[in-house]
Amino acid sequence: MRIVLIRPTDANRIWVGIPRFFNNGIFLFPPLGIMQLKAHIERHTSHEVYLYDCLIHKADYEKLGGFIKGYKPDVVGISAFTHSLIDVVQSAKVVKDIEPSIHVVIGGPHTYTFPEESRYLIDGGCVDSILLGDGEENLVRLIEAIEKKEEPSGIEGIIYRNKEGRVIRRGRPVYLKDLDSISFPSRDIPGIKSYYTPASHGRTMTTMITSRGCPYSCKFCNVQRQYRSRSVVNIVDEMEDCRDKGFKEIFFIDDTFNVTKDRVAGLCEEIIKRGLDVKWGCKARCDQVDAKTLELAKRAGCVRMHYGVETGEPQGLDSIDKRVSPERIMEAFVESKRARIRTVAYFIIGCPHEKNIADVLRTIRFAQKIPADFAVFSLLSPYPDAQFYKEGVEKNVFDPKPWAEFLRNPSPDTALPTCWEEHFTKEELLYLLKIAHRKFYYRPSTILNALFNIHSATELKRIVGGGASLMKLELLATPHGRI
Ligand code: B12
Ligand code: SF4
Questions:
Q1: For 402-407, what is the mean pLDDT?
Q2: 203 and 164 share a domain?
Q3: Which of 151-165, 189-203, 460-474 is predicted least confidently?
Q4: Which of 122, 276, 410, 481 has a 20 to 30 A CA-CA distance from 334?
Q5: pLDDT tens sequence across 71-82
Q6: Do 141 and 203 share a domain, yes or no?
Q7: pLDDT average, residue stretch 221-241
Q8: What is the DSSP letter of 100?
């Protein structure tokens, strides 16, 4: 059989905390989930698998349709994120309009986050089945069932329409325990060397994931809590594989790379032992780093840490359940700088503890105080399964109806609650977002730091792109005039 795995276009991406243009063109990461699935299907079956990333192919629906017509797949798998749900459904429709007999299956973070609501996507007639959770083993099982023209009734973690036309859900989302048993993601896909992030100095980069889930429970975040990690040997084997394929930099996109210091130290020691010369960055918590680990990480090739800071106020950090103090945050940035590791700080504006402008300004001042190379500010914009969303509904800050409607029937016309409007209006929050970026970036020290760290023409292009996005933020207009 011929199988196509699709990352859909994000033309209709919904609002999630950051103005849309702010994401566009600044970074593009490989679609690791379906790359992983491609490798696993190829290892365990003899079917032909093609990965079609609409973002790298710049494919609108017409172009996607042209590809499907030419390739003539038997099965199409579409990766579903909640923010791109409209495009997921629309892509499924494109496929079915061309050939209704193609089996369309969807999976990905949206389906394991909202399994119950996902079943309604089958009602539209464009989706045949939905797999919940880690897709590797179940997709292979589903493909076998499709090949044998059997009902996939033996699979745990599936939603499908049975022969009588009833929508059946079997089991809960599946989370694989032994991550070492999963194949390394397939990196022999078109355009694999064209993915980018502004911070990688123009080096050919790729992403890796070394663990899944996060044991913490920050109230704005909805990652799965079941933390599972790969072994150090397995991780460094994949790093070597990336090096052999010509990648000079790896971004570890684990939800939290440094759940413990010991894990990071063990990994660094293995990298040093093997003499692996690959640069890397990761997403980390500030409370799980210290001078010794950062020094070791630097020797093992670490060039960049992405720290989730969120806010600088002690009571704010407590109220979002971040479990870290401002002093510890400051220390993480100071020690990273000392170890010559560059840093990106992520902040959230408009959490419930920020009740007036002075509160927000204190967060912005904290951002200016820590020696971070880059800062990203977004607005609190929780998904319905996040604790803050539930609290917002209880306090009547969020009307739950639009989300409920959207999850059953995704449409661009649904006005979803996009930020916490208890103390500020959306317009005011957007204004504060602009102020935050302006106060952080429009400083001689930040501009000089960025300019002195440009190492290539590609990097210059990306930095100019980032600057252009900041300018667009300046021009953002609201019903109350330009903000
Ligand atoms: C790296 C990452 C990013 C990167 C790059 C994302 C990208 N486009 O590649 C950046 C930092 C840019 C990012 C941004 C955002 N992200 Co993000 N991100 C992640 C992260 C940490 C890793 C993604 C990954 O590659 N995982 C590894 C692969 C192997 O896992 P996977 O993709 O889930 O795939 C498995 C299954 O889902 C399933 N599967 C996947 N696709 C398919 C398809 C089929 C057919 C089947 C059967 C199965 C299947 O099988 C795969 C293998 O087991 C995840 C959390 C996580 N741990 O997964 C969040 C996550 C995907 N992000 C999330 C969010 C909310 C965002 C933002 C909206 C945040 C924001 N406020 O701006 C933005 C969106 C911007 C954008 N346009 O993408 C949410 C999505 C939740 C949801 N319900 O959709 C996640 C799950 C984190 C969370 N729970 O909060 N993100
Ligand atoms: S914000 Fe980071 S540390 Fe907190 S729960 Fe989410 S992934 Fe874990």
A1: 96
A2: no
A3: 460-474
A4: 276
A5: 999 999 999 999
A6: no
A7: 95
A8: T
Burial class, 110, CB count within 10 angstroms (exposed 0-12 / middle 13-18 / buried 19+): buried
Residue 400 CA to residue 394 CA, distance in Å, equals: 10
229: β partners? 211
Question: Lowest-pLDDT range, 199-208, 362-371, 438-447?
Answer: 438-447
Residue 480 lies in a domain: no
Ligand 2 close to Cβ of residue 130 (< 6 A): no
The CA distance from 96 to 118, in Å, is 18
CATH code of 284's domain: 3.20.20.70
- Residue 2: strand, helix, or coil: strand
Entry pTM = 0.93
Residue 42 CA, ligand 2 centroid: distance in Å = 33
Q: Is residue 152 situated within a structural domain? A: yes
Distances (CA, A) of 152 to 37, 74, 122, 255, 263: 18, 16, 15, 32, 39
Give me the residues paired with residue 398 across strands. none
Report the 10 Å Cβ neighbour count for 447: 12
Report the nearest-CA residue for atom 6 of ligand 2.
Answer: 221
Tell me the average pLDDT of the chain.
Answer: 92
Q: Is the pLDDT of residue 471 over 70?
A: no
Q: Are 276 and 342 found together in one domain?
A: yes
C-alpha 88 to ligand 1 mean position (Å)? 14
Q: Where are the beta strands (DSSP E) in 209-248?
A: 211-212, 228-229
Query: Which numbered atom of ligand 1 lies nearest the CA of 10?
Result: 77
Q: Two tokens at 66?
A: 């042209």
Domain that holds residue 150: 2-170
Count how many domains the chain has. 2
Q: Is residue 361 part of a domain?
A: yes
Q: Are residues 430 and 297 in the same domain?
A: yes
The answer to whether the beta carbons of residues 2 and 47 sit under 8 Å apart is yes
Q: Is residue 276 part of a domain?
A: yes
Residue that finishes a domain, picked among 133, 152, 170: 170
- The alpha carbon of residue 367 and the mean position of all alpha carbons in its chain are separated, in whole angstroms, by 23
Final residue in a domain of this structure, among 170, 189, 209: 170
State yes or no: pLDDT of 481 exceeds 50.
no
Residues with CB under 6 A from ligand 1: 10, 13, 16-18, 23, 27, 29, 31-34, 36-37, 77-79, 81-83, 105-110, 113, 131, 134-136, 139, 209, 212, 221-223, 253, 255, 378, 383
Distance CA 162, CA 159 (A): 9
CATH number of the domain residue 115 falls in: 3.40.50.2300
Shared-domain flag, residues 203 and 345: yes
